[in-house]
UniProtKB/TrEMBL annotation:
<feature type="binding site">
    <location>
        <begin position="227"/>
        <end position="232"/>
    </location>
    <ligand>
        <name>GTP</name>
    </ligand>
</feature>
<feature type="binding site">
    <location>
        <position position="252"/>
    </location>
    <ligand>
        <name>Mg(2+)</name>
    </ligand>
</feature>
<dbReference type="Pfam" id="PF10396">
    <property type="entry name" value="TrmE_N"/>
</dbReference>
<dbReference type="GO" id="GO:0030488">
    <property type="term" value="P:tRNA methylation"/>
</dbReference>
<protein>
    <recommendedName>
        <fullName>tRNA modification GTPase MnmE</fullName>
        <ecNumber>3.6.-.-</ecNumber>
    </recommendedName>
</protein>
<dbReference type="InterPro" id="IPR006073">
    <property type="entry name" value="GTP-bd"/>
</dbReference>
<keyword id="KW-0630">Potassium</keyword>
<dbReference type="InterPro" id="IPR027368">
    <property type="entry name" value="MnmE_dom2"/>
</dbReference>
<dbReference type="GO" id="GO:0002098">
    <property type="term" value="P:tRNA wobble uridine modification"/>
</dbReference>
<feature type="binding site">
    <location>
        <begin position="271"/>
        <end position="274"/>
    </location>
    <ligand>
        <name>GTP</name>
    </ligand>
</feature>
<keyword id="KW-0963">Cytoplasm</keyword>
<feature type="domain" description="TrmE-type G">
    <location>
        <begin position="217"/>
        <end position="386"/>
    </location>
</feature>
<feature type="binding site">
    <location>
        <position position="227"/>
    </location>
    <ligand>
        <name>K(+)</name>
    </ligand>
</feature>
<comment type="function">
    <text>Exhibits a very high intrinsic GTPase hydrolysis rate. Involved in the addition of a carboxymethylaminomethyl (cmnm) group at the wobble position (U34) of certain tRNAs, forming tRNA-cmnm(5)s(2)U34.</text>
</comment>
<feature type="binding site">
    <location>
        <position position="251"/>
    </location>
    <ligand>
        <name>K(+)</name>
    </ligand>
</feature>
<comment type="similarity">
    <text>Belongs to the TRAFAC class TrmE-Era-EngA-EngB-Septin-like GTPase superfamily. TrmE GTPase family.</text>
</comment>
<keyword id="KW-0378">Hydrolase</keyword>
Length: 461
C-alpha cells in the first residue's frame, strides 16, 4: 500500500441490520486487493462481479457484488472498490477487518468526499452538499441539495468570479501602464461591469438566504403564562399528541421540541415550561431551559388568554424577551368565548379592554383545540422569516456561504465608492471580493477550514 496515498475503508451503510450492506474502499492500484478479496478473480472496471468474499485462508466470509472503479473515473478520483454483501453487523465487521488486514486503514469522517475534493472531482460547495443531501429534513431541502451537488450553486459563484477577474484585469492594466493615454477603465465600461456584478451578487445572495432556511429551518418558541394553551397549540401544529395537556398549571416542566414542515421549510417548535416563579426544583430547571430556548429562537409566539389579556403575569414574561426577537401574539381559546379566527387589528384591540404587546408584528386569534386560525398562523410564520417559496434560483446554503457572499457584497460596495484617482483601493476591494467568493468553492480555503467541514461527515462518506 502506498504511504502517500493510503487505502481507506469504511462501512458506507447505516448502522444496524439491513438487507444489503456496503463497504467502500479508495486508494491507489486496488486491483490486487480486489483479487485477494474475490479469491483471485479479476473484476472488469464498472461491471458488477458476483463472488464470494474470502478470508486469508480462502474461506468465504460472505458473498455478493464487487464493483471496481478504476481511477480517475470514480467518486474520489482514485481506484474505488465497493463490496455489496448482506447487511448484518457481524458479517460487515468481519469483511471490514479483512480489508484492514489487506493493508487498508479505517477512513476518517468525510474522507471519501475530501479526497474527491482534493482530486478535483467536486468543489467545496458540491462536497458540502453531499452531507446536506443526506441530512435533508424535507423534500424541498433534498431537491436543493441535489442541485448544489450537480453544481448549480458553484456555477453562479464561478460566473461571478470570472467577471471579477475580467474587471480586475482592467484595473491592473490601468495600474501597470499609467503613462499610457488609454483609459482602460472608461473604454471598457468598468463602472457598468461593476454594477452588473453587484446586481448578480444580490440575486445569488437572495437565493442563498432562502436556501439557508430550507437547510437550517426556523426555531419557534411558545411562551406565555402557565395554562394559556401552549401545549395544545404545539399538538395542533404537530398534528399529534406530543405534549401533555391538562388544566393544571405547570404541567409542562421542561421544554418539548417538535419539528414540522411548512411549505418545505423545517420549523422547530419548542413548547416552553410556563415561565413563572416556582419552588419546584424540577420545574425551575425546565424554566431555565425555556429561557435558553428563547435566546436561540427566530420567532416567539406569545400566547394570551383573551379573557385576561396581557395581565401582570404575562407582561412580566414579555419583559424578559429580547427586544430584537420577532413576536407574534396569539389569542388562543376563541372556542371558549365565541370569538372569530383571523388577524386582529391593533385598532380593534385598542377599542376594547385588552392591551396589546407593543413589539408584536402580528395578532392572530385562533383555537388550538378546533384548529380554527392555524393556517393563518402558519402563513404568518413563513412571512416572518421572509420565505418566498421554492424556485430554481434557490441554493441550499450554509452560514459560511452567506458570510462569504455578504463579505463580497461589502467589498463591492466599497469598490463603488472609490474615486477614479483611487485605483489602488479599487483593485484591493475587487481582490478581496474575489477572495471571499472563492472561499465558497474552495480555491482559497485554509486547511483548518477543510478539517472542520469534512469532520462533520459520516464515516463512509
Amino acid at each position: 500500500m502506498s504511504q502517500t496515498h493510503p487505502t481507506i475503508a469504511a462501512i458506507a451503510t447505516a448502522p444496524g441490520r439491513g438487507g444489503v450492506g456496503v463497504i467502500r474502499l479508495s486508494g491507489k492500484d486496488l486491483l490486487p486487493l480486489a483479487q485477494s478479496l474475490s479469491g483471485g478473480k479479476t473484476p472488469v472496471p464498472r461491471q458488477a462481479l458476483y463472488t464470494d468474499f474470502v478470508d486469508e485462508h480462502g474461506q468465504a466470509i460472505d458473498n455478493g457484488l464487487l464493483l471496481y472503479f478504476a481511477a480517475p473515473a470514480s467518486f474520489t478520483g482514485e481506484d474505488v472498490i465497493e463490496l455489496q454483501g448482506h447487511g448484518g453487523p457481524v458479517v460487515m465487521q468481519m469483511l471490514l477487518q479483512r480489508c484492514l488486514q489487506l493493508g487498508a486503514r479505517l477512513a476518517e469522517p468525510g474522507e471519501f468526499t475530501k479526497r474527491a475534493f482534493l482530486n478535483n472531482k467536486l468543489d467545496l460547495a458540491q462536497a458540502e452538499s453531499v452531507a446536506d443531501l443526506i441530512d435533508a429534513s424535507s423534500q424541498s431541502a433534498a431537491r436543493m441539495a441535489l442541485r448544489s451537488l450537480k453544481g448549480a450553486f458553484s456555477q453562479h459563484i464561478h460566473s461571478l468570479v470570472d467577471e471579477l477577474i475580467t474587471l480586475r484585469m482592467l484595473v491592473e492594466a490601468t495600474l501597470d501602464f499609467p503613462e499610457e493615454d488609454i483609459d482602460f477603465l472608461q473604454a471598457a465600461d468598468a463602472e457598468g461591469k461593476l454594477a452588473h456584478i453587484r446586481r448578480q451578487l444580490v440575486q445569488v445572495l437572495a437565493g442563498a438566504e432562502q436556501g439557508a432556511l430550507l437547510r437550517e429551518g426556523m426555531n419557534v418558541v411558545l411562551v406565555g403564562a402557565p395554562n394559556v394553551g401552549k401545549s395544545s397549540l404545539l399538538n395542533a401544529l404537530a398534528g399529534d399528541e406530543v405534549a401533555i395537556v391538562t388544566d393544571i398549571a405547570g404541567t409542562t416542566r421542561d421544554t418539548v421540541r417538535e419539528m414540522i414542515t411548512l411549505d418545505g421549510v423545517p420549523v422547530h417548535i419548542i413548547d416552553t415550561a410556563g415561565l413563572r416563579d416556582t419552588d419546584d426544583v424540577v420545574e425551575r430547571i425546565g424554566i431555565e431551559r425555556s429561557h435558553k430556548a428563547v435566546q436561540e429562537a427566530d420567532v416567539a409566539l406569545i400566547l394570551v388568554d383573551p379573557r385576561e389579556g396581557l395581565n401582570r403575569k404575562t407582561q412580566a414574561i414579555l419583559d424578559t424577551l429580547p427586544e430584537s426577537l420577532p413576536k407574534i401574539e396569539i389569542h388562543n381559546k376563541i372556542d371558549l368565548h365565541g370569538g372569530e379566527a383571523g388577524y386582529v387589528s391593533r385598532e380593534t384591540m385598542a377599542s376594547g379592554s385588552l392591551s396589546v404587546h407593543s413589539t408584536a408584528t402580528e395578532l392572530i386569534a385562533l383555537s388550538a383545540k378546533t384548529g380554527a386560525g392555524l393556517d393563518l398562523l402558519k402563513q404568518a410564520l413563513l412571512k416572518q422569516v421572509g420565505w418566498q417559496g421554492e424556485s430554481e434560483g434557490l441554493f441550499l446554503a450554509r452560514r459560511r456561504h452567506l458570510n462569504a457572499l455578504q463579505a463580497a457584497q461589502t467589498e463591492l460596495d466599497n469598490a463603488t465608492l472609490c474615486a477614479p484617482q483611487q485605483i489602488e483601493l479599487l483593485a484591493e476591494h475587487l481582490r478581496l471580493a474575489q477572495l471571499a467568493l472563492s472561499e465558497i468553492t474552495g480555491e482559497f480555503s485554509a486547511d483548518d477550514l477543510l478539517g472542520v467541514i469534512f469532520s462533520r461527515f459520516c464515516i463512509g462518506k
